[in-house]
Every structure is written in structure tokens, then in C-alpha cells.
Amino acid sequence: MSIADNLLKYKNELDAAGVKLVAVSKNHPADAALEAYNAGQRIFGENLVQEMVDKQAQLPTDIDWHLIGHLQTNKVKYIAPFVKLIESVDSIKLLKEIDKQAAKNKRVIDCLLQIYIADEDTKFGLGFDEAIELLRSEEFESLKNVRIVGLMGIATNNGSELQTRAEFQELKVLFNGIKLSFFRKEDSFKEISMGMSADYKIAVAEGSTMVRIGSNIFGKRVIKHWKAEKE
Fold first, then answer.
1. What pLDDT, in 10s, does the model give residues 49-79?
2. 54, 60, 61, 62 alpha-carbon torsion, rounded to 10°
3. Residue in 43, 122, 109 with CA at minimum distance from that of residue 76
4. Residue 58: Cβ-neighbour burial (10 angstroms; 0-12, 13-18, 19+)
5. Architecture, CATH, for domain 3-218
6. Which one of 63, 111, 225, 231 has the fewest CB atoms closer than 10 angstroms to its CB?
7. Domain extents for the chain?
């Protein structure tokens, strides 16, 4: 099947459920993303800043670019002019840098707080208490050029269906609590980004508003040709 065929299979299903599809184009060339774009896709997710910057320069300007990988503070300036949503905010330090770079570009940048829900040591994210502490902090209150629009979480890799469902349920409970406590009057706080190729059906059932699908749309990843990003 073509990229377009793969995409439309997911897009039709998710559109019917009212869930956004983030097509994860990392490690695939710009022309692969363009094929998906020509089939109607407008939201693309990238893990690496340099890869996103390169593709953004080559592809149509109405694409919504989501940064979904761990973001280093020294890389924020490169995507601040155009990024639509940063899904992987995991510290107040990073949020302050996004605010600083957004102000330089006369923008307000939408962000998700990445929450650690997996039973793994390799995942990034804020603990539940850390997320609440961040939102209560004076540092957060002072930020004017970022907008928190929801939460993101990644379930345990190869976890059982029961475990994955429980992790997504925990994220939804946290979302509801944060919405009530901090964003009750803000309609913009509405996104729960959870679910990937292997577990998106569970995520949608548990309240996800956007899922991230990559290789099942674009096929096996090509050999990585972007230089590794340094600290």
C-alpha cells in the first residue's frame, strides 16, 4: 500500500472518532511527508529539531509542525518561528526558554506538558506532583508567550493491554484534575496526546484527542541521515 493509502486508513477512522492524527515523519524524507500532505494530512510530528527545520523549509507553509521528542533548551530558537505545538515540555526550565524565544518571534507557542506514565526508566516526563508544582509556581505565572493546551504521555513499551489502559486512564484522571484546578475557564486546555501505532485504539477509548502514527503510515524508517544533535 502507498503512503496515501496507509494514511487514509487511519485518518478516516480517527476523523470519525473526532481524534487528530499526528503523522510522525521522523527519519523519512520530505517527499514522503509531501505524499501524505497531498492525501490531506496537515499535522506532522518530528523528534529532532534539525530534521523538522529542514523539512519545514521544503514543504508547504500550512503544515502544523509538532515537536514530539525530547527538546533541549538550546534548540528551541530554531523552531520558535514556526512550530505549532511542542508536545514534550518536561521542565519549567524548558518552558521558560520557549517563552523567551516565542516573545522574540512575537508569538504565543502552544505546549503540552509531557507526563511520565510508563513503567520504564528511558522515558522523559514530569511526575504527577511535579506537573502540579510547575503549574502552581510563580515562574509559570510570569510566562506570557506560552500556552499550556493539554498533556502528553507515552505508555510502557510492550506493556500488556491492561497496563497500557491503566496508564492512559491515569493520564486522563490527571488531565481532568488539572483542567478543574488550573484551566477551568480556558477552552484551549483540551488536548490529551496519547497513543501510537501499537496502542492508539486503547488510547482513543480512554479519551485521547490526538494520536501519533509513524511507521504504519510511512513504512520502515530509512537510514537516518540527520546528524545527531548534541547537548
1. 999 999 999 999 999 999 999 999 999 999 9
2. -130
3. 109
4. exposed
5. Alpha-Beta Barrel (3.20)
6. 231
7. 3-218
